[in-house]
Amino acid sequence: MATTIESILDDFIQTKQEAVVFIGQLDELLDAIFATTVPFVSLCEKKISVIRKEKLLAILEAEKVNITEKNTIAQCLTRIKQVLSQKPVLELILAFEPKQETVSKIRQWCYQQYKMVPLVSISSDPTLLGGCILRIDGHYKDYSVKKIFQEKQQPIFDTLSAYA
Q1: pLDDT tens digits along 4-22
Q2: Cα 93 off chain centre by
Q3: Phi/psi of residue 65, each to 5°?
Q4: Which of 1, 63, 95, 163 is found 20 to 30 A from 46 (Cα to Cα)?
Q5: Do residues 117 and 10 touch, judged by C-beta distance below 8 A?
C-alpha cells in the first residue's frame, strides 16, 4: 500500500526527469533551510513552482511536520528524496515523443496490472517505426515494428530468391 508521501508524489511527479529536477529542488531547500531565517513557505515560493510548493506543503501537513521546525522539515524532505529515489523506473523507447496524457495512461496501466506506479523515462527512436521497447527491473522487451521486420527479413529474402 502506498504511503501518504508516495500517493501525493504520484499525483505530480510522473517521469524520471521530473523526479531528478524535484530532488534537486529539495536539495536546494535543504541547503537554504539552515542558511537563512526566511520562513520555509517563502523559501518554497522562491525555489519551486506553485504546484510543487502546494504538493510539498500537503506532504508536510499529512506527515504532521511543523513548518517552523527546521530539523523536522529537513527529515521529511530527506524522506521524500528517498521515496523518489527508490521508485521503480519504466524505461520506454518509442518511435515518437508521447503526450503527457500517454504517460499518465501508461502509469495507470502499470498500477492496474502490477499495483505499482513507476516513474517513466521516455526516449524516442524513429528507427523503431512503431511499437516500443520496455525496460524495468532488469527486464527487457522489444515490441517494435523494427524487430518484427528484422525477424521476418530472411524468410522474405528466401521467398524472393526462389523467384529470382
Answers
A1: 999 999 989 999 999 999 9
A2: 14
A3: -90, 130
A4: 63
A5: yes
